[in-house]
Amino acid sequence: MIILQALVNGIVSGTLLAVPAIGFTAMFAVLRFPNFSVSGVATLGAFAGYLAYGAGLQMAGSLAAAFAVAGVAGLAFDKVAHLPLIKQGALPAAIASIATGLILENFVRLGFGNEPRGYDRPIARDVFIGEIRVSPQQLETMGLALLLMLLVFAALAFTRIGKAMRASADNPELAALKGIRPERIATLASFVGMGLVGVGGMLLGLDSSIDPLTGTRILLSLFAAAVLGGLGSVPGAVLGAFLIGMAEELSVLVVGSQYRAAVGFIAILLVLTLRPRGLLGERAY
Amino acid sequence: MTTIRIGRRAALAAGVAALASPAVVRAQADPIKLATLTPLTGAGGPYGPVMAKAAASVVEEVNKAGGVLGRRIVLVSEDDQTNPEAAVRAARKLIDVDKVAAIMGTWASSVTTAVAPLCWESKTFLCTVSGADSITLLPHQGFLIRTQPNSKLQVTRVGEFILSLGAKKAFTMIPQTPFTQSTFDVLNQVLPKGGCTHQSLIYDDKKTTYRTEVDQALRTSPDVLLANGYTPDTVVLLKDLYRAGFKGKILGFAYSINQKLVDQVGQPEVVEGVYTFAPSPAEGSGAFEKVKAGTGSANPDPYTCQVYDHTNLVLMAIANGKAATGEAIKDNIRKATVSGGKVVDNAVDGIKEIMAGGKVDYAGASGPCDFDEKGDILDCKFRYEQIKAGKFTLVKIA
Amino acid sequence: MLSYLLFIATIGGIYGLLALSLNLIWGGVGMVNLGLAGFFAVGAYASALLTTVGHAPIAAGWLMALVAGGFAGLVVTLSTTRLREDYLAIVTLGFAEAVRLVASNEIWLTRGTDGISGIPGPWKRALGPDFNGVYFLIVLLAVLVVFFVMRRIDRSPYGRVLRAIREDAQVAQVAGKPVLRFKTEAFVLSAAIAGLAGALYGHFTSYIAPDMFLPLITVYIFLAVASGGTGRPAGALVGAYMVMTLLESSRFFVEWIPGVTAVQRASLKELLIAVALIVVLRLKPSGVLPERVPPAPRPS
Question: In which element (H, E) is residue B242 found?
């Protein structure tokens, strides 16, 4: 029973992880470099949402604030720091993104200090479904995350710009020939990807607490989810996030919670050794 | 009789000499340099800034009253980043460039252990609030004191308190820290004697939810749960315990379960009835009030009180030793708490009394500050509180 | 002041070794190691354990650090070299975290978060206060040896192959060079040097703990290599000392910024490092000492 319970807990945390993982992998699909500044952007999003919520905005408004602030910041850093370096290869851009992540983390620290803060949300007792314990709030958060994911999938599948994005990720040259402007796709990918990362930071902070290291804490799990599903694959990131979420919770029962952070690393190693392109391959969609 | 007369005469001569020397000269004398090395970033970030502030408030007061030995005091505050590597670099700078006589307030045990050799090798005095047992066992030659009772003593008291709550099945949830192993060892020894079983779980303090950990703990249906982490992870843990409907008693250390935590949880029911435990600051004492005023914090934590005491003790040791060196502080640190001396709660009064040839017995904000030869604090009272309707109410001090 | 400068020079030398290590793979082969701190830790622990628990001579500890670092490098590359640089970046980042977890939790081996204290320094008792000076010379010697090995590699046919792989692995493969083997060898050698740096660090400060090996060190070293000049050993060394100077001098000038709290000062310092890295990458990607080999024309 406790195993089933752990799996349910894992699905809940996996759902939350999926949102920033989608953002990360979508950016990778288009921009072709691993953007390490997601740690800082997730933190920034969490704090933006916190401020908005504190200022009296409702949940939807706060999520939108987190999305907008994180998206704009991520886009700005992409334009100023990362993308100009991409001509020299993925590495310099990736390294620059570590620095921008650090900048954001310390920017938040400059304004808010190190003290953890919590969203002023009522905390409710869990409800039992059969013998499985679920938290109504976490279900709500999970619902929000699922809704967001649906939106992303719908946008990718049905809108013109979504289709253009997929085409551009699959084959930039061909897409360019077809008249899709790579500049615009890149801008959109940065903004939406980082927006999702920011929302992810907020969703993860809703039920726990936020501080300047909020994003750093999830960085490895987030990468693991993306690599597991196949870097650049949006459905892969979702699958990866669920698997990592469940594996992390199960690991608590098997090796103890203290090795939780190693789960992501081991998953990455296993995938790269056994199935180097990830579970769903590297196609964007 | 004769000796006393000479003593008086010498003291008088010294006093006259001090007065006679022109004010300009006294002001020009090199300032005395002291340092705080507290965590301003990293895991200890929530604790370090206010600690540094407490030390600064003491220095400011003493400077206003004319300094010590006719010299001004300059306080240099460095960040140890809760990281021994950065701490070592910072300490080297403090020791070699600023030439401070004492470093105060090291917080993480790993930082203290890293910095301690630099201090005793350079004869710089080190005051720490780290609790790991191993620290005072280092070969520090007397250049180290700690105001925090070691973890063995603390956990023994925790164990006794758990028994006094009538526990039959206790459970400890703790992240991996230098105290983890000794917490287990001590509780496994103390609790069974009182007919209480003990189980435990180490958790990852960087997780954002502890649902599965809580499930695992509650499966053993404990009646008392010791939540032994720091504030950020304990917030999450307490929320998850509440969600899970845990009905037993919860106990935690006051450095993590504090007013900040209660504010952050935001909902009184979640923390209702939680017991907290701390080496007792001497609440209501003059020193404690001074810490409140100096830091602007209504409820200063034990670390802050301890750093306040560090600063006062060091300054009075300098006054007693008539020299602002680590060596002088080492030899005189225990002379600030002479029983029968004039009871003071701050260095300004203490220095005045010492300069007048008297003895002082400092009553600190963290309690009496007597140390054994290893540098461990001798007597320590512990304070037990319970949260009722979002307020900390005193259970007992013992 | 002198002993402070000696101390900084010694730590700078150790950072220099790390920079040489990174330069070999980044500048040399175009691979990346975001887990430098992890290999640094592996070497530090290997040597510390061998000399404290195993009572082996310090030299044996240093040798062990080289071996352990190299072995860790081999383990990491085995699963990832075949793959692209971006995967390696993520794997090495995870590796450093995994090392820290093991160091914190396997108390029977590493003494956990308590760390290992009392690591012997060479002739420490006999030297007394001169220890810092002598140790600086030892580190300097190690740096020079590694430096000349690196320069030798840089100018040898071997180095040219590495550079060819960096510029275009496919072409190198077609030209009959076993790309995978070259990459693995370079990474293992680089990891071994990082391990040695860790050992030198541990025996200098006499204490190591898991908290010492945070990812921030890796950022410092990237800044060092980028600002010094990727692809040139001398650049890596110069860069390491520039970073050390920046790190330590920022201590002095942030004190002059009025009206900020201690926390804000600390975050300003980290901000400064990060901004410096971006500025260098953007404005002077070749560093102060640019690579001397004319870069091959890049295929578009």
Answer: helix B231-243
Count other Cβ atoms within 10 Å, centred on residue C256: 6
CA-wise closest residue to A265 among A241, A234, A237, A244: A244
Concatenating the DSSP letter of every residue in C148-163 gives: HHHHHHHHSHHHHHHH
Rounded CA-CA distance A125/B214 in Å is 14
Cα(A125)–Cα(A121) distance, rounded to whole angstroms?
13
Q: Which chain B residue has the Cα nearest residue A260? A: B204
Residue range A158-178, pLDDT digits in tens:
888 888 888 888 887 888 777
Which residue in this structure is represented by tokens 């830790």? C41
Residue ranges and CATH numbers for the domains of chain B are 2-149+283-362 (3.40.50.2300), 151-280+381-397 (3.40.50.2300)
- B49 with A113: Cβ contact below 8 A: yes
| Interface-testing mutation among C31, C102, C219, C278, with chain A (most A C-beta atoms within 10 A) | C278
**CA–CA separation, B162 and B172 (whole Å):** 11
Kindly determine whether residue B270 and residue A123, on different chains, have CB atoms separated by under 8 Å.
yes
Task: Report pLDDT digits (tens) over B150-196.
Answer: 888 899 999 999 999 999 999 999 998 888 888 999 999 999 999 99
Q: Which run of H or E residues covers position C16? A: helix C2-23
C chain contacts of residue B40, beta-carbon cutoff 8 Å: 262-263, 265-266
Residue B329, token pair as written in the block: 């502080």
**Alpha carbon distance C66, C195 (integer Å):** 5
pTM: 0.85
Q: Is the Cβ pair A88, C267 closer than 8 Å? A: no
- Give the tokens for residue C99: 């090392």
Cβ–Cβ contact B199 with A under 8 A? no
**Contact between B79 and C247 (Cβ < 8 Å):** no
